[in-house]
Design goal:
By secondary structure, the chain is an all-alpha fold. The chain has a domain of 63 residues: Arc Repressor Mutant, subunit A. The chain has 8 helices and no strands. α1 crosses α3.
C-alpha cells in the first residue's frame, strides 16, 4: 500500500476478505476500514458473498440494532482474584516437603565425609596395583578351565560363548 494513500482500494478490501492480502499492507487496510466509505464497501462485499453462497437474506438494520444493544450493555470490571491464604500456605508446605525429600535422598546416596572418600580412593589404588593374572583363581585341572564355557554355573550363561577366554601357563607369560 502506498504511504500517501489514506484509504484502501476496493481491490485491497476484497483481498483482505479472501485472506490473500500481503502482510505489509494488512495494517494499512485495516486502519483504512474506519472510514465510512470503506466500511460500506466491506459490508457490500459481505452481502455479495452471502448471496453467492445462498445464505439467508440480511435483515435490514441488523448492524445498527446490534451496535445499540452492545452499547447498552454495562461494562463489568472484575477485580483480580487473589489466591486464598490457605492455598498459598499449602503450596509453600508442599514445596518445602519436596525439596527436603529430594535433598534427603541425594545426601543419603552420596559418600559421607572425608573418611569414606579416602577409603574409596585407597581401594581404587590397591585395585589398580593388582594384575589380571594375579586375580585369576588357580585351577588345577586344565580341562575344567578350557571347558568352563559349557558349565551351567556361570552367571552369564547365554553370553559366554561370545567371550574369548585367555589363559597363560605361567603367571609372567605373555600371549
Amino acid at each position: 500500500m502506498d504511504r500517501f494513500q489514506t484509504e484502501p482500494k476496493a481491490e485491497e478490501i476484497s483481498l483482505l476478505m479472501d485472506g490473500e492480502l500481503d502482510a505489509e499492507r494488512m495494517d494499512g487496510v485495516c486502519t483504512g476500514l474506519r472510514d465510512a466509505g470503506c466500511t460500506a464497501t466491506w459490508v457490500c462485499y459481505h452481502v455479495i458473498g452471502d448471496a453467492l453462497r445462498g445464505s439467508a437474506a440480511p435483515i435490514r438494520g441488523f448492524a445498527e440494532r446490534f451496535h445499540a444493544s452492545l452499547e447498552a450493555e454495562p461494562t463489568v470490571l472484575a477485580p483480580r482474584r487473589r489466591p486464598a491464604p490457605a492455598a498459598v500456605a499449602l503450596a509453600a508446605a508442599a514445596t518445602v516437603a519436596a525439596v527436603s525429600l529430594v535433598s534427603w535422598v541425594a545426601l543419603t546416596t552420596m559418600p559421607g565425609g572425608d573418611a569414606r572418600v579416602a577409603a574409596a580412593i585407597a581401594t581404587a589404588k590397591q585395585a589398580s596395583a593388582i594384575r589380571a593374572a594375579d586375580a585369576r583363581p588357580a585351577v588345577d585341572n586344565e580341562y575344567v578351565l578350557v571347558h568352563q564355557e559349557y558349565s551351567p554355573s556361570t552367571a552369564i550363561q547365554g553370553v559366554r560363548p561370545y567371550l574369548r577366554a585367555v589363559a597363560a601357563g605361567e603367571p609372567d607369560a605373555r600371549p
